[in-house]
Recover the amino acids of this structure.
């Protein structure tokens, strides 16, 4: 198990390095640097002045050297200065990440249990009417991206019924304020988890030990709750962990849609305003989220499933 | 003039879609009659879910083929009299109703929605097809040979998969990137894969029949070079095939984002199928590796791949919508659904219906593709 974790950690570090290098290269493309130079000097510069500004600020050194320097700074917690917010990056990110954390927490809390219930209900009697209607329902939710469902909900609940707010203020956890973004995000992710749970549940229900339990005369409820559920929930665990990266894209869309000023909103602001340091920091955070959840899901899966652990 | 009522609007819309209904009736009617001879496609007509999905997808395909006949207005022309107006408002100068109202600049939403289907339904399947060529050309050898090649390719695929999609788009689909050579290099690499794929496909099978091989390779080379010149270098000698620079950029980014997924599924299927008896038989016959991969393994992996392709076209549609939603890459006047959503969503308070046509259109297309995939999976499992 330890060797397994060590190997996964190694791969994770290599992935992290490769990805940050790619992001670094793309953010520091020539047109972006020129734009940065012009923006920092009120757009009044000849191309020689741009060149000398870039030279003076160290943007003309080899890319690998600058990447190494940036990496060193990042590891020591020095994330640079945001040109968009005119503050050090380290002052902006934690606050925004906190807001997004609250949002993600509520999304997970509503999405995961309901998805598991839907999946188990659909999978325990494969091919039944319940199964069919729940499956179509989960297909429908996966087919509706956030920017579609969010807008439809806003039209229905905010414009026509006037029950909920169409914009969400960050940090204000109230029903009126939070329902729409949370509902939008959890509904899109729910279908996928539910379908995975359903497939896993349906497979378990056809296995030998369930038949044995049924032949022993156990009630259907006891079979499902005591025997089937535990094995059926291993596969969805991985899926749930892998939802976090998806949650990240969802967060960016939903935060833009509802003007919720969290991490996703900052990412969009940084990218739209060519804010190099902030964008790099955001990229690091998002790549780290993806990779760490992958690691946890790998380890957790091996831990939950003895057949893999032994191998 | 009086605006149209609810039923008049829908009656008008249904009448405008007449070429689509006609096409649907012809295609689905004749297919249902001959369904026993049509293999997997024919068996779709035995499944309700699959048939509904197919119907929705065909509806949008036919709409994308006949937008000029269906649409009432020019998709980018602006009319002051329907600006931000509710559905059914009559445009005063022409006297034609704007069935779904006008957008924030006074363009007819119905016509824009109809024309918008064209962009999605050309780019999404084309990008998925190219992603499939890339994924198959790399996934087959990775799964078949394993070892170093597999390890390296899997690492790269995981690298791309670990990239948050939204960040990828913000870095790749920007005006800045368009000034560099990156889109051309990327599309140059991606569009080389279909050519490589077909050359390998024909060579591995017809190497002993030089005449047929020469014809096939010449055809591949000519068509490949023509498409390649038109798409990558924007220098098609006939001027038929060209992409706007921003479209090339979007195309490359979408292919880049979806080919690792295809790679993974092809690799997994190959690892499974290569243990089968018929592969062992081919190996004993002394067939070459590429023949086994392309002519023994690939045809037997087609079921899951077709299902996955349907899902992936749907996912690519969502991605294209995301790009439009963030205002990335596409021209502002372009009538694609994502950009329409982005431009109109600020006016929900003034006219709540202003965002509905494009959002519902996008959702139904993706839903149709997902239902179709589900029906295909269900029917292919019945074998």
């Amino acid at each position: 198990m330890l060797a397994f974790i060590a190997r996964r950690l190694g791969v994770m570090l290599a992935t992290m390095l490769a990805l940050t290098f790619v992001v670094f290269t793309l953010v520091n493309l020539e047109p972006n640097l020129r734009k940065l130079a012009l923006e920092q000097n009120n757009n009044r510069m000849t191309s020689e002045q741009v060149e000398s500004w870039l030279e003076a600020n160290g943007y003309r050194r080899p890319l690998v050297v600058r990447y190494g320097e940036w990496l060193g700074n990042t590891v020591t917690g020095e994330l640079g200065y945001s040109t968009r917010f005119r503050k050090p990056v380290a002052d902006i990110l934690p606050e925004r990440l906190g807001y997004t954390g609250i949002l993600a927490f509520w999304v997970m809390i509503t999405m995961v249990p309901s998805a598991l219930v839907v999946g188990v209900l659909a999978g325990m009697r494969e091919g039944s009417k319940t199964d069919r209607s729940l499956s179509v329902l989960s297909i429908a939710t996966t087919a509706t991206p956030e920017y579609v469902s969010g807008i439809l909900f806003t039209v229905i609940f905010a414009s026509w019924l006037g029950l909920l707010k169409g914009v969400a203020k960050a940090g204000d956890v109230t029903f009126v304020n939070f329902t729409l973004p949370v509902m939008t995000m959890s509904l899109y992710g729910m279908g996928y988890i539910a379908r995975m749970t359903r497939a896993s549940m349906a497979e378990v229900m056809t296995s030998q030990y369930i038949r044995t339990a049924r032949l022993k005369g156990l009630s259907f409820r006891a079979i499902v709750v005591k025997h089937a559920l535990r094995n059926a929930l291993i596969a969805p665990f991985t899926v749930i962990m892998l939802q976090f990266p998806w949650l990240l894209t969802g967060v960016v869309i939903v935060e833009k849609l509802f003007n919720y000023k969290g991490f996703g909103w900052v990412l969009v602001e940084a990218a739209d305003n060519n804010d190099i340091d902030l964008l790099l920091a955001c990229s690091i955070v998002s790549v780290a989220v993806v990779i760490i959840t992958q690691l946890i899901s790998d380890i957790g899966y091996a831990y939950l499933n003895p057949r893999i652990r032994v191998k | 003039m009086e605006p149209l009522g609810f039923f008049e609007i829908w009656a008008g819309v249904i009448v405008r879609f007449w070429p689509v209904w006609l096409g649907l009736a012809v295609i689905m009617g004749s297919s249902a009659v001959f369904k026993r001879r049509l293999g997997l496609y024919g068996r779709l007509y035995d499944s309700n879910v699959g048939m509904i999905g197919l119907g929705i997808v065909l509806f949008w395909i036919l709409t994308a083929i006949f937008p000029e006949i269906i649409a009432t207005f020019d998709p980018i022309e602006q009319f002051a009299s329907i600006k931000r107006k509710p559905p059914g408002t009559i445009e005063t100068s022409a006297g034609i109703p704007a069935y779904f109202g006008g957008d924030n600049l006074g363009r007819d939403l119905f016509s824009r929605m109809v024309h918008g289907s064209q962009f999605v339904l050309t780019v999404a399947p084309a990008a998925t097809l190219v992603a499939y060529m890339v994924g198959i050309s790399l996934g087959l050898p990775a799964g078949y040979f394993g070892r170093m090649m597999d390890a390296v390719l899997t690492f790269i695929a995981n690298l791309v998969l670990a990239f948050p999609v939204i960040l990828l788009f913000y870095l790749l689909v920007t005006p800045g990137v368009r000034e560099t050579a990156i889109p051309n290099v990327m599309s140059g690499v991606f569009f080389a894969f279909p050519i490589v794929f077909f050359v390998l496909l024909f060579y591995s099978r017809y190497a002993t029949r030089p005449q047929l091989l020469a014809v096939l390779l010449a055809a591949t080379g000519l068509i490949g070079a023509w498409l390649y010149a038109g798409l990558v270098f924007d220098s098609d000698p006939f001027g038929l095939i060209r992409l706007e620079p921003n479209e090339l950029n979007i195309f490359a980014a979408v292919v880049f984002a979806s080919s690792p997924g295809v790679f993974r599924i092809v690799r997994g299927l190959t690892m499974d199928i290569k243990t089968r008896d018929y592969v062992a038989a081919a190996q004993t016959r002394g067939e070459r590796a590429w023949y086994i991969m392309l002519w023994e393994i690939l045809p037997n992996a087609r079921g899951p791949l077709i299902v996955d392709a349907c899902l992936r076209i749907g996912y690519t549609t969502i991605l294209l919508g995301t790009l439009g939603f963030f205002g990335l890459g596409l021209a502002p006047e372009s009538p694609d659904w994502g950009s329409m959503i982005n431009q109109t969503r600020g006016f929900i308070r003034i006219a709540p219906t202003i965002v509905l046509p494009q959002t519902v259109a996008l959702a139904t297309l993706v839903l149709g593709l997902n239902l179709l995939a589900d029906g295909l999976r269900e029917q292919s499992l019945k074998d």
Summary: The two ends of chain A are 10 Å apart (CA to CA).
